[in-house]
Fold these 4 entries.
Entry 1:
Amino acid sequence: MSSIINFRRGNAYETLHFPEDAPTHECGIFGMWAPQRDVAQETFFALVALQHRGQESAGIAAAAEDGLHLYRATGLVGDVFTPEIIEHLYGHAAIGHVRYSTTEDRAGDALNAQPLMIRYQHGELALSFNGSIVNAAALRRHLESLGSIFQSSLDCEVFAHLIARSSATILEDALQEAVAQVQGGYAIIFLTADRLIALRDPHGIRPLTLGMLGGHYLVSSESCAFDTLGGSYLREVAPGEMVTISAQGLQSRQGLTPAVPPSLCAFEHIYFARPDSDIEGVNTHFMRKRLGAALVQEAHLEVDVISGVPDSSISAAIGYAEASGVPFEMALIKNRYLGRTFIKPTQEQRELAVKLKLNPVRKLVEGKRVLLVDDSIVRGTTMRYIIHLLREVGATEVHVRITSPPYRYPCYFGIDTSARGDLIASNRSVEEIREAIEADSLYYLDIETITRLMGNEGLSLCLACFNGNYPVSVPGSH
Ligand code: SF4
């Protein structure tokens, strides 16, 4: 997540963007089929639980006897929806979306908020999408040449047009045709008047989970939304599976395309997911603790204090502290009340932003050898500032341990890591990165350790941003 503040300079107000040194651009999706329940209100609560996956816009579409009702806007979930809007979104089923966006896809543009909604020959259809379609541009050109008119710059809109143009009379058949043409990493939930359909790309790159609430079905990017509603985890939507939920219950179509090896995004457990979520049945907090403990086995050294970069690295730092016997301390305190927008900052503004966002606790750090655990280093700028801050308040040594391998290659499956040239690890050795961030020592977990630890839990991973082996071939990536 990126953070922004507005501040006054002379007579003018400027906006300051503090980019996290971590991958961004995720989305969160949710759906429920629950006649006799207040589906919009409960979808609202679920979206609040998924807010960490996207803060630029939020939306809900609800299905009622008089058709689909949609509301979406830019902003946080709690700001977008009022009680009056929720009341308007009555019905027997709903889907929701929270979105993170980049400047490239017109951040803040309400047209790119989701769910998307279309009216086509078989009625109304809304969809919530998480991920990326790598051949979207080619599909869009082809569809436009056939007369399709796109209403947004979202690549997932090609799904809507492929469905609208299909001659299939059953929606599931039209979707299966679309899946055969679309390449990428995605999870989608569709809503019509009489069904809710959840599907996951054949590699299962983005997560999608089924839950239950009072005998009704729920679908979510992460299981923390089920816990929030008082529901329970049922199972994952399998890679390449399409699940239909309707008055007839739950039906599944497996193997929408020929089978391919599953490739769950490794960063879901490392960074994106909430620690209280189970992804593919594995709890994220416990997985991060295991990653932290692995760092102790591989590269421990004598220090006085273990700390993590809030929030996503706290679980791993606790795991490191438990395994090493060195106390865990909250050496960095995060300011949670910064707003968000986008503007390119100057160097001076970046330093100010880091100070506003993360403040070291002088009494914990002064005169101490500090070991800092983080989940990733993308550009390296923020980590360097954090190390400066710790030294400024008296840390005698600052050592950095990272619970992932060096982030060397861009992601094409819905995660914004900027161009390869911006990635600090794209053309530097670990020692050169250590020098650049000015740490006393630096160690990354290697790909084998990640594969072993997550593989022991039955996870088969996409590791492309570490090794460049993309599970789906990406046009123009080489
Ligand atoms: S390339 Fe990296 S961030 Fe992108 S899906 Fe694969 S593991 Fe996740």
Note: Confidence is low (pLDDT under 50) at residues 1-19, 340-344.
Entry 2:
Amino acid sequence: MYQTTKRTRLGRLPERGVYDRETVHAILDEGFVCHVGFVVDGQPYVIPTGYVRAGETLYLHGSTGSRLGLRPGDQVCVTVTLIDGIVLARAAFHHSFQYRSAVVLGRTRLVADPEEKDAALHALVEHIVPGRSAEIRPGDGSELAATAVLAVPLEEVSAKVRTGPPKDDEEDYALPIWAGVLPLTLTPGEPEPDPRLDLAIPVPSYVAAWERRSPALRQTAG
Ligand SMILES: Cc1cc2nc3c(=O)[nH]c(=O)nc-3n(C[C@H](O)[C@H](O)[C@H](O)COP(=O)(O)OP(=O)(O)OC[C@H]3O[C@@H](n4cnc5c(N)ncnc54)[C@H](O)[C@@H]3O)c2cc1C
């Protein structure tokens, strides 16, 4: 379990709060895009980017010239959101989403150790497209120098999960309005070869068979 803190204890609908590591890890491992919030000169920014979890660390990467890369040690709020459906209630007020989300609060650390940096970048590629790193050209010295890898410890963490049918007001259940859940899933389309690709190169099996990691948690929590 992650210990709840003043900052991570859910105020609204606290019954949807989840703090066990298994649930949080599963959300972080199924997603691969997060939104990183940070404040520069009093102005909040929320920037989408890729990430990977390794143990109890979240790794982000970006250009050394990006604001995040330039500001190691900043306090950040990293959010990952998985949408599992649209909840259509009878009343406008009760419309919602089926979702699983995780919020990580912490301070970034610039990964300076070349081994840790290399492992994090490798894990990032494998997290998004498992099997890819075995055949791509690895980053060279100048590419690695231009890439900042930031680590955020998984210490102050919360998850929130919504499942189940709409929750209308009792008197509205008699209304002749369709209500229910429209499930949504992320599925890949047909791979589109680069126009400059040598067409003798086939689509790799890990691309043809790519799928979002198993949504094992959809049926849990209320
Ligand atoms: C796809 C999606 C759509 C949503 N739509 C709405 C909406 O339309 N209106 C609405 O009011 N709310 C919506 N929510 C819920 C929303 O994320 C917040 O939980 C809610 O607004 C309460 O915010 P708060 O700042 O008052 O949270 P509080 O409960 O005060 O937050 C306290 C702490 O709880 C944790 N926390 C709060 N929300 C989340 C979360 N979603 N995931 C993980 N940890 C969390 C954080 O650590 C936060 O610091 C939606 C959530 C998702 C994922």
Note: The helical segments are 21-30, 67-70, 114-128, 141-145, 205-208.
Entry 3:
Amino acid sequence: MSRPSCPVSAATGGQCPAGSVAGRSRASSRVGPRGCTFSGYCQPGDIHAAFDIPRGVDAEEWLRMRERKTINDLLYQDVPSVKEIGRMKNIDLLNADDHDLLAVALGAPARQVMIRAEEIGPATGWKDGYLSVEHGFCPPDYNESPGALANSPGRIWSDLCERMPGCVARGRVRESVAALPIVPGTADTVPDRALWAAVVALGMLCSIYRYEDKNDGHEGVAVSSTKYTPDCEMGDDLGEELIGIPRSIALPYWQVSRRLGRAIPHLTFFDQSSFNMKLKDPTSTFPYVGRFDNMEMRWPVFGERTEMAFQKGCADTSASFQHGPDAIASCQEHVMNRNIEGLLREMVRLKEILERMPNAFHSINTNPNSGENYVPGHQWVRWGKFSAPLSKRCPASSGLQFPPFLVMDAFLGRRKYESFLGAEGLHLRAWLPSNLRAFIAAIDYHYSIPEFVRASGDPRLMGVLDGIVEAYTGERGFMGTHRYKVFGILEIASKTGRTETNGLSGDADPNGKPWEETHKQFSEAMKERLEPFRGNITVEPHEMRGTFEECRYRSRVLSRAYVDTDSNRSIAMVTLDLQNTGVTFQPGDRLAIMPLNSWAECAKVAAALGLGDFLDYRVSLNAKWQRFAQHLGAVSHSSAPAHLTVKDILRRGHLAPITKELALKIHDLLRASSSTVVKVLATEEWPIRGSLGDLLQSAVADTNPHIWDRAFDLAGDMEWLADLIPVEIPRTYSISTHSQELLPSTVDLTISRAEYDLCATFAGEEKVRCAGVGSGFLNPFVSSGEDMMEDEEDILIGVSRPLNFQLPIDRAAPCAYFAGGSGIAPFRSFWQARLASHNNAAGRDLLYLGVQSREKFCYEEELRDYVDAGLMEVHLAFSRDSRGLVYDRRTHDLVEKEMPPRYIDNLIVEQGAVISELVMSKKQGGLGGYLYVCGSVAVFDSVMNGIRKAVYNHCSATMETTDMIVNRAFAERRFMLDVFMTPKPLPCNLPTIPLSQLARHTGHRPDTRMWIGVHGSVYDVTDFTPMHPGGTFIIKSNAGVDCSKSFDNLAHTNNPEVSSLLTKYFVGQLTPKPDFHNSPELGDLYELWSAYLRTTVETLVAHQFEMYEIMGASDDGTSDKYLRGSENIWSREHLVNIGLGVRMFYDYQSRLLQGGFSALFGPKLQELVLKLSFALADASASGTEMRLPDILGIIARAKTSPDAVVTSQQVSLVGQFVCDTSSNVRFAERGIFRYATKSVEMDIELLEDIREEACHGMDAFDSVMAMDVRSDSQRITVLAAFLMQTLERMAKRLEVFYTKLAQYKVYEPSLERNPARSRWQLVRRRVRDGSFFILTQQAVLGAAPAYVAAHNRGSSVDFDGVMNRIQATIRGAPRPSPTPTRLNAVHLARAATPPTDTSAMATHENNKSMRAMSAFIDKNMGSIRRLSRMPSVPLTFEEICEAVEQQDMLHGRRPPSPPSSHGSVNGTGSSRATSLERLMAAQNGRVLNTRTSSPMPGRMASRQGIRSPPTPPLDHAAALGSMMGKLNVRSRGGPVPASPAISAASERMVRPGRSMSMRPLPVNVSGSSSPAHGAKLSTSSLRTFKLGSERPAVKVAPTF
Ligand SMILES: Cc1cc2nc3c(=O)[nH]c(=O)nc-3n(C[C@H](O)[C@H](O)[C@H](O)COP(=O)(O)OP(=O)(O)OC[C@H]3O[C@@H](n4cnc5c(N)ncnc54)[C@H](O)[C@@H]3O)c2cc1C
């Protein structure tokens, strides 16, 4: 390893020579003298000695002068030779351009702006904006401006800001503001130094005033119309921003804004975050002072952690760029001075700064266990509303305005701002403070750094620039990480309370998923930034992840070394060349490597295909290989080679393992003639353990040579080769080395060879060991001779940084590393880095390593050296070796000791005393150590098991406390994981899992399992959830559904880390959509129903997030943890928290009631009713009149029933508490708590019941397809009838829900502490609002239905009735407002309270359904008319079927419904009712037997007055079976195999006493415990992969 050197003085020795003077407190010591701004240079030190500077001279100035050259030296260095001048036509060109001369004479523009800002800023209160070398865009002193404000009359504003969370909690914001006296914001009262604090304080006060005005308890369900009117002067004359805001804050806000150069008052994003912070410790400056952990919010408005975490996270993002402006200005100077080495240093520094920036995202975490970093997505909604601009003229308060982004765009020379986010960013740039604008302009318009780098041709500069581009705007860089973070939070927010999103994701979003649309917009903006460097990008950024596109550097294997005494070298240290690449890395980073196939594998393929003589032939490339070829060219900084040879394809393509796709391709090419291939295809697990070479070697022997030759034609340009062999994907390896060089010249990896036995099809009886592609290339079998061959070919590599696996900033913190096998790989870089930058005063480093035997103890020599020197403690567990080694703390030695073999968990338990202290936080009196785990999932499980036991043994009395202690360590980000495993082939012969089964596994109740579906497979991710780096909620929001789309968007599909882990959690394949033969109607119904099922699941899961918040428990809680500890949102400072708890519940419940659970009972359900009614009527043959369940009527009646009104009145009472200035809530606080608990519990129960019903409906599709009937019409008839019944039951459940909820009241004096006072308050309020005399007031129900059915409860309606209602709904639906075109408008829309305040997702989905219904009716108008006019002929059910059949015969299969030229929509005669009633009675009596046995529903029955609930969910199989009994089901030699789930359900059906139960059927919690829903119970195993069943339809000619 080369000796590290100081980037400034070139002095060697590993330490910056300036880093050793004690006690020197240079403000600028964090950024060294000009030219020495390497970010590691942050220690005080003797600069004079280090740089040979005379004593008494200002070192920085001296260095600056020493570096400064004459203009001539700079501009006339390259004057050509006499000869060259002689050949020149125009010698004038040799004179430097005026612009260059002037610029060199004046200095770099960006530096000049900075110097000016620093000179003028301190004396003028930084009016032009903060800009300095040391602090960048952040204030040099966070206390200065608030301090100045506090010393001025403007103090009244900051004092009120300090009271604000309390005022919000008590609902007293507006009174407090109105009570303020008017203090002007002019220079005589508010000095310049106080301006920034004044604008922040006043801006926040205006925003919260506006917010309170809009959200005053009338925005939800409300019966009171009394509004608060302040008794004070207003600022209406000061412009539209300040209309309706008291003059006491409006006037000074207007005045200070103008003094800061703001034409209209507005609050920027960084006003609210960066300028609203105070530092805990201003001396804690490494690596930057404004870190999350070193800041507090000065003036929170709401005062709870969502706001704090979010604002602090945003401030951290800006603060992490503290040294960025100086680095950028220095880059510009070096470009001007054409100083390549200086530029290199500064660019490396800038890259390090950018690479650090995404860390800020940690501080915004959706994981409830993340302590103060926890930001629940749905609470974010409130902040979104608060931060809305005061008027439509204001610039939006958006992160797009963050100066670091805008200056980086300028630095990289971004010219395209066409995307929505691009255009908005540019617009917001014009609203930045003047200094910042000037600085960005200086970078934008002068001395393009990327151009200089390109022109220099220096590969190091180009490599570092590429690293900067990636770190800033790449998929794994800041922008990519930002996008993923936003995706996750938005998904949760959109499914819950958020009504609008950032960006243009309104109606432009075709899928009703705003987070996907936002994701797309982010991608577009990323592409605009990437294009200048990566050319025309044809794929989305996330599609680059896990592909060759991530490997942007060229390298070579330099050596492979033994790291232990294992003669097989199953683990090796592999060193790669990094010379001239510009690659830098840090401990924890990973290398992605594009492996090359072994020569032996290439040879097998070449031999079988006869390519031996063609290895250097050019191959005609398909699109993917062409992109690869271009990529190779770009990486080599040469024009892309337009071709690749046969050898290239063989070496760089995917040859092993054999995927199903690859095997099918060969099968087709050989026209199904190879028995080997057929045998391979019949396998029961994929992929197959073997290679393409193995397959071809076997197949060539059993295939007709003519066919072979035709398939693999060597005569042409061999385009089949590129089609057959796809480009290989990269493998990831942890970096195992640390370097102190500015640009490291090598990198070490620790490679464990993945070995497997060749499958029996190829190996026969023999046992043939094979190596994985990547590990086999890097660490080949010693006997293979591969590593003896010279590595001439370049390999492609890339570097990535996991956010959650980095060393602590605090170098004195103790670190414990837990590793299994090759999991030691990253820890070598950790300990090397820690020990290199430390002396013995550093925190302890402890390694706990589990390996099989002494022979496999890696890096023993190196570790022993550290142990001997007392620098490390090493503890070992050998699982198959009794020759133990024990660490002796006294002698600093590893001592031999015979002991029984053990695993790492035993070792941890043994060392439990120390380990448990490391786990305990400092606040708990522990050491607050950092714990890192690396290895397979099994290693992780074992380590966690050991740690829990250790903590239990030493620090806690119960397992519950143990979990709390461990969770705390996770929350403090002291537990970090790097868990990975080699993927394993998955079986494909398991029974498949129906959608309904997946849907039931949402894991939202304690001790239940959580499943997700991804690309046809189902995974049980319950145990993985706590490990998910993005936070548990991200994964939970996809529970129970197919989340392939999110998986793709989040680039999980290509991510080896994810895909390999997933194999561990595989449960089975998802039952594919049934083959609906030729019935598109059935297919459409299937799609519609499955979408509805999905909505039920997503709604349930999303509501559960809010439910736990409302109940005061974290997400692992249940209702019994109600009002628990610090997570209690209901109280603040021992008083009821109206601002958070009461308001949150009010918003939540209002949303549900106003929308009437609109996601489930709104247009989506109506669309189902419409299409099912139509299908039923249409399939039931002419001459029949259908009577249909009155589903819409039931829903309408339920929503407007007296019970619903009572419920709404109760919620509106809660709303009154929000706006009631006399804070009467304290007289009904316990009543509200109880009411909230009960209602959210009932909400969830209702949602669970609806999901259960939807699941039954889903299963019916499978069952109906398994039955043998005469025509699809019959199928449609029975299925539609069944589904209609299911919907009817759902509607009735809604009815029962209201009835039950109406039993509870907010007003429960007996619950209160002072019942008499509660009673008196009620009377007093009623007297005041007049309701004492008029007790009934009309509830304002946002979603009052467009029609109200006649009171024909329990009866059915005819087809016309259904159509009329649906048409009325469509006509009455509000037109969607046009999509806002500016960000400002979007934010305003978000703050407005729409009448039906449903979530963004539900709104989108409902709009979609409205459109679909409208289109459906238009399209089928003719048929609807025809069906409405059918004569009434009494027919039996059998007769319907016969009629259907006759129709089928008449019209081929199914005739399209003839358009009707006459008649009206309402043409049905009431005389037909009798016959239809008879028909339905026949069906109901014998087929849909619940109708007769339970004459539903009726306002009746129980003594408590609760309506009888619907009977348990209908068993679809029993019901369908009964229906099919009437349809001459053809015998299949035995009964149709009903799934055990179905049988179990039918058993339940006949059990007495079940019919009154409202609880859903027991959900299978473990995936196996309940036979009713076990995965293995599906009937659908018939659809597992069978040869040919999934193949694309390829015409195969007979071969023999
Ligand atoms: C974040 C991370 C860090 C890592 N760090 C290290 C490290 O430091 N050291 C180290 O040695 N390894 C590390 N790995 C593992 C490494 O990336 C490779 O997974 C490992 O080397 C095996 O790759 P291979 O090409 O040799 O094997 P492959 O050729 O990919 O195959 C190996 C085995 O997996 C099976 N297999 C391959 N593809 C699939 C598939 N799609 N589905 C199912 N089964 C499949 C094969 O049949 C075979 O049995 C790390 C992995 C990750 C994700």
Note: The chain has a mean pLDDT of 80.
Entry 4:
Amino acid sequence: MENVDRPFPPGQYDVVVVGSGPGGLQTSHCLTQLGVEHAVISQDEAPGGMFRRFPIFERLISWTKPDAPVERGTREYEWYDHNSLLGDAGAQALAPEFMDRSFDVPSRAEMEAALVAFTERAGVQVRYGCRWTGTRRDDDGGFVLETDDGEYACRFAVFAIGVTQPWVPSIRGSELAAHYVETRPASSYRDKRVVIIGKRNSAFEVGNGLLPWAKELTLVSPRPVQLELLPQSPLRLRYLQPYEEYVRGGAGTFVVDAAIEQIERSNGGLRVVAEGTTWPGRLEFDADDVILATGFKAPLQDLRELGVTTVLNDRIPALNPFFESISAPGLFFAGNITAGSRGIRKHGVGPNSTSVNGFRYNARVLAEHVAERLGIERPRPSVDRADVVPFLLRELSCAPELWIQKTFLGRVVSVTDGGLRDEGIVPLEHFLDAGGPDAVCVAIEMDPKAVIYPAVYVRRGGRITEHELPTHPVHAFRGSEYAREVEAILAAARF
Ligand SMILES: Cc1cc2nc3c(=O)[nH]c(=O)nc-3n(C[C@H](O)[C@H](O)[C@H](O)COP(=O)(O)OP(=O)(O)OC[C@H]3O[C@@H](n4cnc5c(N)ncnc54)[C@H](O)[C@@H]3O)c2cc1C
């Protein structure tokens, strides 16, 4: 009876995936497509992960265009739809199905509904109500995950456990404030002076949500908003109304660059004491409420004791290009934790791995890599020499993986047995660092001035050459001038 009602009883599996947010669901689907035997467990009672309760003010920042010049459900359409998971026929492009089009971004509830539908239509099975509580290595080089249902032994574990535990830097008096996750309904801030500590998306989301209610709103953190760097920054304009009010000199809304010294009690309320960063001086802000929108960390439990090292103030694990811990092989991470794989950061541009649009492709790369480690080779179709230039230009023009994961994922064609083979989507860092047969890799990149351009990397005799092609005002990288350039690059490399 137990097996019928709840899949994946404790036992031995090749892979165990923890988490039923978009990261866990996408990874499970990709593993299934490749024929990798695995279990999925989650402490939740239903699919959706973080989107079952966040964003607090119920509107996402990532867009989906229900109508596009390409057909819904095609690979090209993914470029227009940043919220749907990647599924087979029937389970593709689900986010637009649930959007009422009052905005170009889904509501939290619409996103949750799309994830529930994906689970049903893609047939993703999850053992809900099963919490991972501890981890140890077994004698065969694998792992045992302890859960409140029993033990799961596996060769590889994939943790898609999200990054939603409150993270607070050391600020004296921070216990007097509430974290983002404890934000109350907006109406309870009516007529209050609210100080929000932080200037990232979650800070501006709360600020934007409280504009109609609070009588005074101040966002404070050391670093300034740098709109000129917007294309390279995770900050989204969607929530920036408080910033606009401030820079236009509107009354009652402030966005201040200052390092917080302490939060203290004062006159029956609170006071935030801060030292200016982009200007000299000290400021004190009286407040009825202080909200810490200082970020989140991954609930890693005992993984550090197994050797998992971390980045970004100990908030997420340090990962290699295939999203495996750099220090504890066999432990993989999916979902927005994949931001721990930093990529080559050429021109300072990092991956887009904290949102669904980017990590859905990371999940596919991870699944293909895990499958190969388990001995399941994926097909590498041959490419005719005459077709290779149009093939690469088509990728540069509209491959969603390349356009969303700029400078991070590339499309590779390699030379093997005298023929050309499509190696699929590959982490650019791996292509550049790992060596291998002669091959070409194309990627979309962004220069320091945020100009988007196509790049071609050629590996010949183990040596890499790099070619940055010109940009185009409407990013039309398929024209004859690009064909000539790519042909010349390949000919010079004797491809
Ligand atoms: C305020 C906020 C707003 C955001 N807005 C957007 C947006 O608009 N668009 C976007 O693309 N991204 C957004 N994100 C990023 C967002 O977190 C991810 O896109 C997405 O939710 C991450 O998916 P995930 O599967 O990695 O993690 P989550 O959705 O957080 O899911 C983690 C899963 O792991 C489970 N889990 C954790 N620990 C255990 C355990 N010990 N045992 C068993 N199960 C466990 C959880 O219960 C959950 O099911 C936002 C993030 C925040 C914090």
Note: The longest helix spans residues 356-373.
